[in-house]
From TrEMBL:
<dbReference type="InterPro" id="IPR013762">
    <property type="entry name" value="Integrase-like_cat_sf"/>
</dbReference>
<feature type="domain" description="Tyr recombinase">
    <location>
        <begin position="11"/>
        <end position="203"/>
    </location>
</feature>
<dbReference type="InterPro" id="IPR002104">
    <property type="entry name" value="Integrase_catalytic"/>
</dbReference>
<dbReference type="GO" id="GO:0015074">
    <property type="term" value="P:DNA integration"/>
</dbReference>
<dbReference type="GO" id="GO:0006310">
    <property type="term" value="P:DNA recombination"/>
</dbReference>
<dbReference type="Pfam" id="PF00589">
    <property type="entry name" value="Phage_integrase"/>
</dbReference>
<dbReference type="GO" id="GO:0003677">
    <property type="term" value="F:DNA binding"/>
</dbReference>
<keyword id="KW-0233">DNA recombination</keyword>
<dbReference type="InterPro" id="IPR011010">
    <property type="entry name" value="DNA_brk_join_enz"/>
</dbReference>
<protein>
    <submittedName>
        <fullName>Phage integrase family protein</fullName>
    </submittedName>
</protein>
């Protein structure tokens, strides 16, 4: 992964590789059903922390061979700053199946909160996963010191870059399913190259 510092002294942005996210999901699955659900909702569905805390099983549905999660106004965020915004977030099929499994193992009813925790606790869960990844050292990809910086938004960042850069999805489609209100709000994800692109470019110019 690559790390960028932000304005705060202890604030960082992590750009995860696919294999790092997959390893994180494996560790989360071993940790607890809630940890696993958080990893999936953040990195595979692209939800914010407050949106994860508001998910109910009844919000997940299938339509025309695809799987979706209804994000309601009170949970969503409008990046224009005008309040909540309703949207339908796409759930990859494998993540949908795993989320249903977690729901049944957690014994959550259709109209109950899937996680049953606050936004703050969701963030704590992600920090716990980062600490556990760091503790595993060479047994998992990525540097331990970097994993200790993991935040809930890093999972959403992985979702955005994976769709926009690796999968080359139409930015307007990613805006719709991810809850961004403008292309400008996604500029950092669009302009930041993936690790593979950086490595390929270095090799292309003979600097390897």
């Amino acid at each position: 992964m690559r790390v960028k510092s932000t304005a705060g002294d202890s604030e960082y942005k992590l750009w995860l590789k696919p294999e790092e996210y997959e390893a994180l999901c494996d560790v989360a699955e071993d940790r607890s059903h809630k940890h696993h659900a958080v990893a999936l909702l953040g990195g595979s569905v692209g939800l914010r922390a407050q949106e994860m805390a508001a998910v109910r099983p009844e919000d997940m549905y299938a339509d025309d061979g695809l799987y979706w999660l209804r994000v309601h106004e009170e949970a969503g965020k409008d990046t224009t700053g005008s309040g909540g915004k309703l949207r339908d977030a796409h759930i990859p099929q494998d993540a949908y199946v795993e989320l249903l499994e977690n729901r049944h193992k957690l014994d959550v009813e259709e109209d109950e909160l899937l996680l049953g925790v606050t936004k703050s606790r969701v963030r704590d869960i992600v920090h716990e996963l980062g600490d556990e990844m760091a503790a595993r050292g060479d047994d998992v990809p990525g540097r331990s010191a970097d994993w200790e910086k993991l935040s809930a938004h890093d999972l959403r960042r992985f979702f955005a870059q994976d769709r926009l850069v690796r999968k080359e999805m139409n930015p307007h489609t990613v805006m719709a399913i991810g809850g961004w209100s403008s292309l400008g709000a996604m500029e950092d994800y669009i302009k930041t190259p993936s690790d593979d692109v950086v490595a390929d470019e270095i090799k292309r110019v003979g600097l390897s």
